[in-house]
Design a protein that fits this description.
single chain; alpha/beta; Amidase signature (AS) enzymes; 11-stranded mixed β-sheet; 16 helices; binds glutamine
Amino acid sequence: MTDLTALTLAEALDGMEKKLFSSAELTNAFLDAIDKANPKLNAFVVVTADRARSQAKASDAKRAAGKAGPLEGAPLGIKDLFCTEGVRTTACSGILGEFTPTYESTVTANLFRDGALMLGKLNMDEFAMGSSNETSHFGPVVSPWRRGNDDAKLTPGGSSGGSAAAVSADLCLGATATDTGGSIRQPAAFTGTVGIKPTYGRCSRWGIVAFASSLDQAGPIAKSVEDAAMLLQSMAGHDPKDSTSLPNALPDFRAATKRSIKGMKIGVPEEYRVDGMPAEIEALWQQGIQWAKDAGAEIVPISLKHTKYALPTYYIVAPAEASSNLARYDGMRYGARVAGKDLTGTYEQTRASGFGREVQRRILIGTYVLSAGYYDAYYLRAQKVRQRIAQDFRDAFTTVDAILTPATPSASFALGEKSADPVAMYLNDIFTVTANLAGLPAIALPAATDAQGLPLGLQVIGKALDEESVFAVSAALEKAANFRAKPSKWWM
Ligand code: GLN
């Protein structure tokens, strides 16, 4: 039999429907693959093997009874930011200790309602703060990709590094992820996978550990644009438990991936050309533009004037919200506690030992920009600039249907290469944070490999609530790119 783990989600569902194999067989194949790979890749921080096997059995019975849901029997990985009932959830932070939620996040509940099953919880940067998965309390994820024959350990990106590595290494059919400033798209671009951050409010944030609430959005990392559309269909939808959840009906995302892009207008923003950007990224972008033209789209040069302020704005807004959201980790209610000599001492000891360095840095920055005397100069000004950035997009979308940019300013880099320099790390997000600040849907898809054989990604940004155009354009680009590279399974 063919290697079941190499199938796409669409292929696997089709194979189960045709009775070529069962969910139990598929699930066992993934659990075996995880056993072999995880000691080297560190993508999963919890493996729920028994639960996955019994869910697979139940799924096979449901399918046999003609009651299969749209994702029936599909084994997925779940980012450790999603609360999963009865399964340890720590956001990969030491401060959550062995926290085991008594409830399920809406996004994972939606996936399970549709028949998907969980293989385990995926590694990530602590509280989703990072771009390399190096801030995780459980250690970094190692990318399945290598530079040529060099065995230097590379990053799968972050913060959804476990999700991207697991999908790319065939350890699950697809994964949940979250994106506050790029954490779905940057790891997808680094690992040759597809990741979409939908419009802010499409996916419920209920039960997702909060980082920066006005920016956080869930989305899938998948093996193809079609798979991403199918996963998002289940993950998204209105939820009264999240006050920012959108009531709008969900369109048929999978159908949108089949749409022609003939006659669509695609904007190319001049501001997404940054100093020191490798020639390969520029070449990739030009190639993407050509593919869009070949598919019948019209390319329109546009200007998003305030782009250069996006990164500084993000690094004020996100830490400000984080400093407030993370105030709840005081050692009293959940997770780890380190006793001090009095109550204040306990707070201090708990937070000093429970939070890693990057999280502490964000809390300090956030508290600073929100403090009296600095609030107007930093936080309020950042809010105003954020409005300008959103307005730039609204103006552009009066003339174009979608926007095409590179996903990241470079390919994946080695572990340790940027971890000592926070600003160099923050530059990873330069093309992705704008969509979060403006609340827009954006996808990253693999388009080429660089000279060393590492994946490079393109990004398609759409209007608010117009994931359909994002799917249509990215599917057309995916077809043209015909990206077939896979990491060699050196861990086997
Ligand atoms: N890399 C960005 C950060 O560190 C984005 C993280 C994310 O999207 N969760 O904040």
